[in-house]
Amino acid sequence: MTIREEAEKREHLFLNGNASFSDASKGRERYEEPCDMRTIYQRDRDRILHSKSFRRLKHKTQVFLSPGGDHYRTRLTHTLEVSQISRTIARALRLNEDLTEAIALGHDLGHTPFGHAGERALSKVKGEPFRHNEQSVRVIERLENNGLGLNLTWEVRDGILNHRTSCTPSTLEGMIVRMSDKIAYVNHDIDDGIRAGFLSEDDLPKECTDILGHSTRDRIDRIIHAVINGSQGTNEIKMAEEYENALLKLREYMFKYLYTNPKAKGEENKAITMIEMLYDYYKGHINELPSEYYNMTLEGESESIAVCDYIAGMTDNYAVDKFKELFVPKSWDR
Question: Domains of the chain (ranges plus CATH)?
């Protein structure tokens, strides 16, 4: 018996009956021989972790564009916090922690530079919604690995595609990530907002903090406990209604006072203009796209999609550098 087969056997002994068992996966689009050491979901997790798109998350905006400090979250640190929360919940509920981790690590791979401002900019130039969850799936199915994709399992792709609040994942592990994403960003964005001076703990709605806690640490701890307690013995991932309502009201507060705050988001219009100009330039100079994107157009992909793929994959810094290269006059050599 291989190490992988022993791990699969342990899953059946330990995980609860509603878990996604590794040896019962719907599999990959292209068949591969199983690994002798790692389960199918462990293998997916490792592929995401070693991908170029995962590394680029380090230099992509979470909330604040070009924050003046090293302690603000980036898209990468957000992803790691979602992973940590998701794993804690999955472990407590005896669900598949490896599947949960793979979905969490991959859920934001398709995010644009400059956060949701970049998403809005690409939606505008495309003339149709650009959704980062759909782009995340495109990254792992089409764009990574020189156009071959990562060939991940159906369950991981489903969890990544459906991690948004408006979607419904097919597995409990995917539902955990969807819930953990919200738990993470609401609370760490409060922390960053306080650090930046846009919020204070005393500003937060008291009817929410009296239930959830009066610090980021306490809120995350209480909400995780609420999810675990509310989900045990069920085929759902949920929490008591008072906790859910408090979290939703806190999220609404954040949209009103931080996510749409003119001071906090003052640079976003510049970022949107930058992305629009990059799109227009490359749409008119398709042959200047990197070869992997240009070749897609030769194979029948629309030019608009190829340009969006290229721009969506940029980090904030790379987008700024490309903008300077294309549109800012260089100094005269002396």
Answer: 3-195 (1.10.3210.10)
Q: Which residues of the chain have pLDDT under 50?
A: 333-334
What would the two tokens of residue 330 be?
């260089």
Separation between Cα atoms, residue 207 and residue 216, nearest integer Å: 16
DSSP track, 51-114: SHHHHHGGGSBSSSSS-SSSSS-BHHHHHHHHHHHHHHHHHHTT--HHHHHHHHHHTTTTPPTT
CB count within 10 Å of CB 17 equals 8
Per DSSP, helices labelled H in 258-302 are 268-284, 291-298
The structure tokens listed for 302 are: 């629309």
State residue 99 phi and psi, 5-degree precision. Answer: -65, -45
pLDDT at residue 68 in the model? 63
Picking from 201, 181, 154, 13, the residue whose alpha carbon sits closest to that of residue 85 is: 181
Number of CB atoms found within 10 A of residue 287's CB: 7
